[in-house]
């Protein structure tokens, strides 16, 4: 017998009842997109599971790696089909366990989805466990076993596995609408985007840069972060918006201490226009309350006033260490900490306002041609489109229609 099945389990998806069928369908599509070219030849559904059928020439290491980044998956098992005859099944599992490198303890976990099967799950586990104990000399430890043996008793087949891998959980991407996330190139915003992916959102990315007044180092970082996110969301897109001329007009026409908040208000206006073109329902940022001058509560209120769309802030209550830990876990931290030039630091005073009111912000930008500034910036935007899990970008020299 060969390992030719993967039993994909989901948890949060199963709790959605009325939406469960649509969510499972979306998850299945996402899995097949992620596993393109890895030897998966088909799928079928079982209660609480999606069963993947592998070809004889499958690339299991690649399959495992990609499945760990498909949101909606709680865990998955590399399986083989076993004989439904209980004695044959027990003998086969005991022999497979004995063929492994020695282990001190084990547990048998049986899930019986087929309620017509004549034995209950605890009885199956007990019988298999006794045989494995005789064959290996290992002890049973149900709480902290060194090895877990899994049996999936399904309506049409019984699957056996000794390899269980954790998935990322959450909801399948595409089930929660589209959000446009402002990607700075720093640590926080890419973590915010990743957290939104885990809530089922399709994430579009927009990066504001100040070339030619600054280098394109920040844009290069944003592109690299988009490549990393593309491993979780194949087909990710980065919209690169030149922001230097907008900043130049703000510097010439607004009070010095107001510049930082006005930069962010201008970004929100531009992002809102782009979101409308992309049919995104909300904007998102990596703001964490009180972390820097633009993220005080008064300044966030003043910035929100300019957006015209809901602004999601997945990190608002997280501290920096929590955010850094998440960034390390998803592989973005090293890129985010590379040296660059943040556009928000261009021509900003040493002590920007930290308590800007909505009224003061509106008054400070009253002399500016806001609509013209936003339209001009968007007309010069570039779109970088990663169309496959292999991180290959195509480039368009215009914003979406």
Explain what this protein looks like in three dimensions.
- The chain is of the alpha/beta class.
- The protein folds into two domains: 5-166, VC0802-like, CATH 3.30.2130.30; 178-396, Rossmann fold, CATH 3.40.50.
- It has helices spanning 20-34, 60-67, 86-98, 121-136, 187-197, 217-229, 244-253, 259-278, 297-304, 320-330, 333-336, 358-364, 370-379, and strands spanning 5-9, 40-46, 49-54, 75-81, 105-112, 139-140, 147-153, 158-161, 164-166, 178-182, 202-209, 237-242, 282-284, 311-312, 382-386, 393-396.
- Strands 1, 2, 3, 4, 5, 6, 7, 8 and 9 form a nine-stranded mixed beta sheet that branches. Strands 14-13-10-11-12-15-16 form a seven-stranded mixed beta sheet, with helices on both faces.
- Helix 9 (297-304) links the parallel strand 13 and strand 14 (311-312).
- Helix 3 (86-98) crosses helix 4 (121-136).
- The chain is elongated, with a radius of gyration of 26 Å.
- The N and C termini lie far apart (54 Å).
Any chance you could write out the topology, listing elements then pairs?
Layout: E1 5-9, H1 20-34, E2 40-46, E3 49-54, H2 60-67, E4 75-81, H3 86-98, E5 105-112, H4 121-136, E6 139-140, E7 147-153, E8 158-161, E9 164-166, E10 178-182, H5 187-197, E11 202-209, H6 217-229, E12 237-242, H7 244-253, H8 259-278, E13 282-284, H9 297-304, E14 311-312, H10 320-330, H11 333-336, H12 358-364, H13 370-379, E15 382-386, E16 393-396
């Amino acid at each position: 017998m060969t390992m030719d099945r993967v039993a994909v389990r989901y948890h949060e998806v199963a709790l959605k009842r009325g939406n469960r069928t649509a969510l499972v369908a979306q998850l299945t599509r996402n899995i097949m997109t992620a596993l393109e070219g890895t030897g998966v030849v088909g799928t079928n559904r079982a209660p609480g599971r999606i069963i993947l059928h592998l070809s004889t020439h499958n690339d299991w290491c690649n399959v495992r790696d990609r499945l760990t980044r498909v949101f909606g998956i709680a865990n998955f098992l590399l399986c083989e089909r076993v004989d439904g005859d209980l004695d044959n099944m027990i003998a086969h599992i005991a022999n497979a366990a004995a063929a492994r490198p020695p282990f001190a303890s084990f547990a048998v976990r049986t899930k019986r989805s087929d309620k017509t099967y004549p034995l209950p799950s605890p009885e199956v586990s007990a019988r298999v466990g006794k045989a494995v104990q005789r064959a290996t000399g290992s002890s049973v430890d149900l709480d902290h076993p060194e090895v877990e043996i899994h049996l999936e008793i399904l309506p049409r087949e019984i699957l056996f596995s000794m390899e269980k891998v954790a998935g990322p959980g959450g909801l399948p991407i595409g089930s929660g609408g589209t959000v446009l996330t402002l990607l700075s190139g720093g640590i926080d915003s890419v973590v915010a985007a990743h957290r939104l992916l885990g809530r089922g959102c399709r994430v579009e990315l927009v990066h504001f840069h100040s070339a030619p007044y600054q280098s394109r180092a920040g844009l290069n970082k944003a592109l690299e972060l988009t490549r990393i996110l593309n491993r979780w969301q194949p087909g990710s897109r980065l919209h690169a918006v030149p922001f230097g001329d907008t900043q130049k007009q703000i510097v010439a026409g607004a009070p010095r201490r107001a510049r930082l908040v006005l930069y962010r208000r201008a970004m929100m206006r531009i992002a809102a226009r782009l979101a409308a073109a992309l049919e995104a329902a909300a904007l998102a940022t990596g703001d964490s309350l009180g972390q820097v001058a633009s993220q005080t509560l008064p300044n966030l209120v003043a910035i929100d006033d300019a957006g015209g769309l809901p602004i999601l802030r997945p990190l608002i209550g997280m501290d920096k260490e929590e955010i850094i830990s998440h960034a390390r876990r998803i592989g973005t931290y090293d890129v985010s900490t590379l040296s660059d030039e943040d556009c928000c630091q261009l021509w900003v005073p040493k002590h920007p306002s930290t308590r800007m009111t909505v009224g003061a912000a509106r008054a400070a930008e009253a002399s500016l041609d806001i609509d013209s500034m936003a339209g001009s910036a968007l007309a010069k935007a570039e779109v970088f489109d990663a169309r496959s899990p292999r991180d290959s970008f195509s480039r368009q020299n215009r914003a979406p229609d």
